[in-house]
Design a protein that fits this description.
Chain lengths: ~400, ~140
């Protein structure tokens, strides 16, 4: 493929927008990224041509929507290298997926059982496990972080013991961009027959994932961070595990038979897709994943690294700036959080917006990590495949203006 | 555009700590958070006969939050709950674009510095958090 960022940018209509008269320099992709035209067309195609419910109607539209929906499931299975499409559950997003596993798996837990979570997790992969502690008396142990916010795995053997039932970690930190050493964590967990749940929300935007090679047990990601629509996500789980879990939500679409006395549930993924699923969104996500799979990642990864290197160099030149995460680019995704002495991230992001630069400021739904690092908030720049050098230079140049205004 | 938000007035207010960080024997301690951005105000107050007699605070927040908290702290002593609520609602009205004829309220001229914030809806709660904290201390 003849790939270039400039050609790729033409596929994103939203990049034509001006903000305060300036070109849009969108660097908040870790929160939500944009959809290319093929995704927008896939959603519009459903809405305009065959909008109907799935797995119900025998008429033409229903057949077409069901086929498109199930094709999206095939795309998700391919993207994750799942063993089978039966392992793919469409949810509303990663938060829903974590809650599904926490609530369903949680029912098998007993007081004294242990869950291990890292202190760096997004709240969506922290609070649902914390709730199990309150509900079932489960002990929640925390993997600590190093001073730069990366996970400190030096005490893993003390944290993951025979009482551990599940370890929940992110594949890539939404704050530091650090890539978690899943191999070490999974080996430690499986030594004690504990399961491994991975929040992959920040990993899937940067290329296909191989859950078989990772040897994890559950993997979740969100559509809107992976160039798909909002309101949809994927939960992958080993089929044997999914079969062992009780349903999460109940209702239509997930039953084999309902009588006045009892209900018999479906097996497989559909047991976890009660009600009308997010059909348009899933079809859009399927298009996004096909689009991602067609990209030449062997060329894109060095390109993302080049942008990252320029950004890191520029950031480190700023006096009083503390960049979280590893400064090496080998073990991180292009997500960069920083703190500037004397400047609050919301004030920084407010002024950056004057120059069309969109950054996220705040605690990034990771308050335990902020507490561990003694921070209130950070500014975060997150790079997607459509970003270019102009975006990075615009950020660095606007940061100079920010300091003039705020200091 | 952020022009007006970070002009000299608000910057100076944010930098001017108008209250100690703690009281020797506080009657009430409250902690309020802005879940949107993580701004936090830890407040200690003494209240006698329904009026604030002493206040201390620790503010971890943006410049707007710091500035607003310093305005509130500078005027809090002697206020009743109703008075705090009255000024807070005037501030909220101003931010929503419904400025009353008596804006800014008497004795609260510095709140006029926050008028440019009205254009930035995502920042309103940064300015109102200090009033939320003080009101909570009366509960």
């Amino acid at each position: 493929m003849n790939w270039s960022a400039e050609n790729l940018r033409k596929q994103f209509p939203i990049l034509q927008r001006k903000i305060n008269g300036a070109p849009l320099h969108y660097l908040d992709n870790a929160a939500t990224t944009f959809s290319p035209a093929c995704v927008l067309e896939a959603v519009a195609g459903y809405e305009n041509n065959y909008r109907s419910n799935v797995q119900r109607g025998i008429y033409q539209l229903g057949v077409e929507s069901t086929e498109a929906y199930e094709n999206a499931r095939i795309s998700a299975a391919k993207y994750l290298n799942a063993f089978s499409t039966e392992e793919i559950i469409f949810t509303s997003g990663t938060t829903f997926s974590v809650n599904l596993v926490a609530q369903c798996f949680g029912q098998s837990l007993q007081s004294g059982d242990e869950i291990v979570v890292s202190v760096a997790e997004h709240h969506s992969n922290f609070v649902p496990w914390q709730c199990l502690r309150e509900r079932f008396g489960v002990t929640m142990k925390l993997i600590p972080v190093l001073a730069n916010g990366s996970l400190d795995l030096s005490q893993l053997d003390q944290l993951i013991t025979e009482r551990c039932r599940l370890v929940a970690v992110s594949h890539v930190s939404n704050v530091t961009g650090s890539i978690t050493d899943l191999e070490t964590i999974t080996a430690a967990a499986h030594r004690h027959d504990a399961l491994v749940f991975v929040d992959g929300a920040q990993a899937t935007p940067h290329g296909p994932v191989d859950v078989q090679a990772l040897d994890v047990d559950f993997y979740a990601f969100s559509g809107h961070k992976s160039f798909g629509p909002t309101g949809v996500g994927v939960l992958w789980g080993r089929q044997q595990l999914l079969e062992s879990l009780p349903p999460f939500l109940t209702g239509g679409g997930m039953i084999e038979r309902v009588t006045a006395d009892e209900t018999r549930y479906m097996t497989g993924n559909r047991r976890f897709e009660a009600g009308t699923p997010p059909v348009a969104q899933a079809i859009g996500l399927g298009a996004a994943l096909e689009w991602l799979m067609a990209l030449p990642w062997q060329e894109i990864r060095p390109y993302e690294q080049k942008l990252s290197q320029r950004l890191v160099k520029g950031l480190l030149d700023i006096e009083g700036l503390n960049l979280l995460g590893e400064h090496s680019h080998q073990h991180r995704a292009p997500i960069f959080s920083f703190d500037i002495e004397g400047c609050h991230s919301h004030d920084i992001c407010q002024v950056l917006d004057d120059y069309g630069v969109a950054l996220r400021g705040g605690h990034h739904c990771a308050q335990p990590l902020m507490d561990a690092l003694g921070l209130v908030a950070t500014s975060r720049a997150s790079i997607a495949v459509f970003n270019n050098e102009e975006d990075i230079e615009a950020l660095l140049s606007a940061l100079e203006k920010v300091l003039e205004v705020l200091r | 555009m952020s022009s007006g938000l970070y002009d000299g007035g608000i910057k100076a207010l944010a930098a001017s700590e108008s209250a100690p960080k703690s009281l020797p024997n506080p009657d009430r301690r409250v902690s309020v958070d802005n879940p949107f951005c993580g701004d936090r105000i830890d407040l200690e107050v003494n209240i006698e006969a329904g009026r604030v007699t002493a206040l201390a605070q620790e503010v971890r927040g943006c410049m707007l939050c710091q500035a607003s908290a310093n305005v509130v702290a500078g005027s809090a002593v002697g206020l009743s709950r109703d008075e705090v609520e009255h000024v807070g609602s005037k501030l909220t009205d101003m931010l929503k674009g419904c400025r009353s004829v008596d804006w800014p309220p008497e004795g609260w001229q510095q709140l006029g510095l926050f008028e440019p914030v009205a254009r930035h809806k995502s920042r309103h709660s940064c300015v109102t958090l200090a009033f939320t904290a003080l009101l909570k201390s009366f509960d």
